Each structure stands twice: as structure tokens, then as C-alpha cells.
Amino acid sequence: MYKYDNYDQAMVETRVAEFRDQTRRRLEGKLSEEQFRPLRLMNGLYLQLHAYMLRVAIPYGTLNSAQMHALADTAEKYDRGYGHFTTRQNIQYNWIKLEEAPDLLADLAEVEMHAIQTSGNCIRNISSDHFAGAAEDELIDPRPYAELLRQWSSFHPEFSFLPRKFKIAVIASETDRAAMKLHDIGIQIVKSDSGEIGARFYVGGGMGRTPMIAPPIRDFVPLDQLISYSEACLRVYNRYGRRDNKYKARIKILVHELGADEYKRQVEEEFAHMLEQGVEPPLAELERIKPYFADPSFETGLPTEIDRSDPDFALWVDTNTNPHKAPGYVSAVISLKPVGGIPGDASTEQMHLMAELSKEYSFDESRVTHTQNIVLPHVKIADLYALWTKLDAAGLGSPNLDTIEDIIACPGLDYCSLANARSIPLAQQISKRFAASGKTKELGELKLKISGCINACGHHHAGHIGILGVDKKGVENYQLLLGGSEAQDTSLAKITGRGFDEAGIISAVETVTDIYLDKREEGERFLDTYRRIGMDPFKEALYGE
Amino acid sequence: MKILTGNDLKSGAVVWWDGTIWSFYVNDAVDVRDQADEIIAREQSARRVNSAYSLEATCDEQGVRPAHIKDRVRALGPTVRPDLTLKPKDPTAMDWVI
């Protein structure tokens, strides 16, 4: 994985020193909260319901064991013994003290980590496929390009005060594991008919209060023009994106209002100008980056058969592993969704264990998924049983990937000052109910996503089943949505009808899954059945309409 | 009644105005009547509190209870981590929030 050069390290350390001084001035009263707030936000420090919350960037979700250990140490030293992995492949700490934040950031800088641009109207952490560099279906490893974009977007002076925040995802396979079309810019690495590798750009996607699927803007951008084209997309947005209304300031609104064709025309015009200006980084920089993402030394001639005599292990293998490009290896997914647990939370001890296991079994590498789990990307099939045994003993062996128990949930009203309703308790109750009923396996792939407010951090628009928490006269209320997807068949879920109270929404989820089991045809997922039969049978079961 | 809450500047901890200082306990909160703006301005200027605001609450023999669930969550702690709330050993604490 990528290693900082002296320039990267100096940038991060300088930022820590700068923030230390800003914090000192705030505590001494030389900066008001109004002056300090944008400065702390630029360093990922929010003020949430119970305390300061720090969001730490994990570029394209990739970590080495030293970094995972450092995240565990941070939880122990500066927080309350746990962290929360997020839907943008980052981690958040909920109980940070302002006076300790500079020391925390200095500790992270020692392992090449920071919280820069994890908040504010700038280009946020670049996300990617959590199986990048391992998946057997990918064209190339997208991470060198994600890293190039990270370097380009870090402290970019022109894009530090955009109309609104800006999120970019990069993938390199037909299977979308990064919700690519629901980003401000989604980049898919593709191969042209002539065999050349390039980038397909989707621009103007997003969730939030106005969910939109990004339309394709350009089918093929040569990779040596990737930054120039990205810059052109951003420039048009920065110039014409609305700054008068924060709810209409995302690029999706601009693309929608202009129309994709007109937006594209303006981008192409700007792109031609960018090519004349020569803003593309020298190819040598990309060539410098690429070796950091070279394959580890995969062994050959490894066994590919799995001893499935332990049924619990066999179930975990079936649900929590993904095919690997190297024979004899798989990618193993560590579920952070134990039955009744808090989605995405990991304790200090669990993070230390995952770090050790990544070192022992996965070439010192782990990944954070946008579905709030952890991947060990390169595990020998022969090591799987030993790995699973250790995970299971630590409560990390839940065999539930992509099932109704593998729920995405935002922190909700338990932690977030923006939330209207709690989301975590719903996730806990739903996973308990379905685990107890024994229906989880029978339901197969079923992605359930819960947000505690319209900002949609829990991706409810993209859930096969989505739940949105709202405030109904001071009481939590939950809307049910069906039919969303953030995979290659991206679609936006639709609201079933009037909302439910906490108990009602749990029963409603069970009702719609029962309809699915009753109506499904051979091989259909919940989503397939919904798309075939439509909303009406579900509404009838829910509301008698 | 109208009460005041905010966050401690250094730690970020949730605090409530008890008439003299900022307390961690909502039951210490007092009715500030029409003094909210004045107290907030003074206390924030002195850096004793951050992001303070006023809110409606009720008071009976059980104590002070903020009107909105968001403020009750702030007053107690995350309902999903009873061990991290101000009443980790009180099994009825969550009922008070909800």
C-alpha cells in the first residue's frame, strides 16, 4: 500500500502543528467559536450530541496493521474504548476532548494518518472497491488512481471552498461494490474496444434529501488525462454550483438543473482548456505510486479445496468470503454486525485483533468497507479455518454478509446532532428478530439500510429495504422504503406509505420479507421480486390497501 | 420551564445551567425564564460553555425532563450504550429518554 514520502509527511505534521496552535488560541479565548468552528471542521472535528467527534480518513479504506493498531490505541487513549467504522470507509470517535485532539492527531501522523478534509465543503476521502487489488473480476487495481486523486485533491486551493462537500469513488470492475453512481463523481476504470484502459465518468449522483443516480458524462477518458477531466468537472461545479441554498448546493442539483448534456458540454469546453494548460500531473508521479500497490508475493500451487466438515465454518465461508484473483486465496470479510450489536462499532481489543490477523494472514493489509465491515483481502484458503476460529472467539465471526443482519446504520439520534430518530436500536432489534426466527439464510441477499435523518448517511435510499427516521411532533417515526440498490444495478428506493413507530417498523420489515418469501420465483433476491411484482403487494400487506 | 444546555469547551461534555455553574446533571437545571440570552452570552464569552442554547422542559417530583427526545438523549447518554450513560446501573433510565 501507499507510503508517505517526505512531502506527504511534512504536510500532515505541519497541519497538526497548525491545528495545535489554533486549538490553543481557542482555549485561550483568542478565537471565538464562530472563528474556530471552520478550522476544527477542516480537521474532522465535529461537536456532536455528547462530545466532540473526530472523523479520521482512511484513503480508499486501506489500512496496514500498524495503522489499525493505532486506531485501536486512539480508542483506548483518547476515547472510550471503541470506534465506529463509517459508510465512507472512515472511522469516527465519539468522545474526543478538544484539548487532547492535537495530541491525538500527532499520534496518527506517526502512522501516516490524519483527519484532513473529512469535513467541510471540499473533496472528501476518495473511496473505492474494498476488494481492490484482490477481486478476480477487476480490470486493474483502481487504487493507484484513487491515490493520485487523493494527492490532487489534498489542500487543492481552488477546491477548498466548494459550494458543498464533494465525494469521489473509483472502481475497476463491472460489479459495483462502492456505490459509485451515488457519488458526486463516480469513476469506473474500463477497457475500450481497442484495448486501451481509461475512465468512465458518472457525475451528479448522491443520496441525502434529493437522491439522484449519476448520469454518465463521458464514456472514456484516457488515464493520462484523469486529473484534467476531474478538474474540469469540479471547475464547472465550483463556478455554477449554488451557494445561496445549502440544500441545493450539491453538484447533483447543478447537473439536474442544467441537464446532463449541457453540463457535459461545459465540462468538455473546460477540459479542452485544461489540456492546453497542462495541469495533468507528470506521468512519473503515477509511475511512482503504482509499485506501492503491486501484488504481494502470492504463493503458487496452494490448495484450493476447503474442508467443510464444520458446518458453522462452512456457512461463514459461503457468506463472508469473496473470490480472489490468485489461486489458493480468498478475500475474507470480518462482520462488524454481531446479532444485536451496533453496526460498524469495534472495540479496542477487536481492532488490535484484526490488526494482528491482517499481519498474520493477509500480507499486513485490511480494508474498511462502505457497508461498515472489515476485509482481509488476501487470505490463503488453507488458513481460513484458523482465521475463522480466532474471529469467532472474539465475536467477529458472524456469517451474515449481505444478509438482513448485515445492516448499514448511521449513528442516528444516539450520537448525531443532525438526527431526528435513533437508527442503531432498530438495527439491533431487526438482527435479533431475524436471527431468532432462523429466516436470515432463507432470505438470502437482502440489504437493509437505516438512516436517522434525511441526510442519508445510512444509505436508506439504496437499501433493498430502507428505513428513514423522522421527527413526528417530537416522537420518533420511521418511513419504510423498498427497491433501492447501490450496486451495478443502482436504483432508488420508494417510500411504501405512512410511517411507523419503533415497534411497528420492525414488524413492517418482517411483513415485507414474508411477502417476498411468498411471491419469489426460483433464484430471485428480494430486490428481484420487488422489481417484478412492484410495490402494490407490499403496500397491501402493510396497510391493507 | 426554560433551561439551558451546552457543551464544556475543553471536554465537549454535555452540561446544564444550574443557576451558578454548569452541571453534568439535567436535574440540576434551573428555570432561566427570560434570562437565557444574557446567560448564554456571558458564559460563552467567558469560555465556560460552548454552543449553548435554551430549551423547554418540565419539572415534577421525578426531576427535570427536557421536552424533546434529542435533549433527553443528551442528558443521559447514548441509549445503545447504557454503560456509557450517566446512569449505567439504572435499567429504567432508557424509559425516561423514550
Give keywords:
heterodimer; A: 545 residues; alpha+beta; Sulfite Reductase Hemoprotein, domain 2; Sulfite Reductase Hemoprotein, domain 1; Alpha-Beta Plaits; 4 domains; 17 helices; B: 98 residues; 5-stranded antiparallel β-sheet; 3 helices; globular
Describe the structure.
- The complex is a heterodimer of chains A (545) and B (98).
- With 545 residues, chain A is of the alpha+beta class.
- Chain A contains 17 helices and 20 strands.
- Chain A has a five-stranded antiparallel β-sheet with strand order 1-2-5-4-13.
- The model of chain A has no long low-confidence stretch (mean pLDDT 97).
- Chain B has one domain (2-97).
- Chain B has helices spanning 36-45, 69-76, 93-97, and strands spanning 2-7, 14-17, 22-23, 50-60, 63-66.
- In chain B, strands 3-2-1-4-5 form a five-stranded antiparallel β-sheet.
- The A-B interface holds A 26-27, 29, 33, 47, 49-52, 80, 94-99, 342, 413-415, 417, 419, 422, 424-425, 428, 474-476 and B 7, 9-14, 44, 47, 50-51, 67-70, 73-74, 77-81, 84.
How do the helices and strands line up, and which of them pair or pack?
The complex is a heterodimer of chains A (545) and B (98).
Chain A: H1 6-27, H2 33-41, E1 45-47, E2 52-56, E3 62-64, H3 65-78, E4 82-85, E5 91-96, H4 101-109, E6 127-128, H5 143-153, E7 168-171, E8 185-191, E9 197-203, E10 216-222, H6 226-240, H7 251-258, H8 260-277, H9 283-289, H10 311-320, E11 321-323, E12 329-334, E13 345-347, H11 348-361, E14 365-368, E15 374-380, H12 384-393, E16 408-409, H13 424-437, H14 440-443, E17 448-451, E18 465-472, E19 475-482, E20 494-495, H15 502-519, H16 526-533, H17 536-543
Parallel strand pairs in A: 6-7, 7-8, 16-17, 17-18
Antiparallel strand pairs in A: 1-2, 2-5, 3-14, 4-5, 4-13, 8-9, 9-10, 11-12, 12-15, 14-15, 18-19, 19-20
Chain B: E1 2-7, E2 14-17, E3 22-23, H1 36-45, E4 50-60, E5 63-66, H2 69-76, H3 93-97
Antiparallel strand pairs in B: 1-2, 1-4, 2-3, 4-5
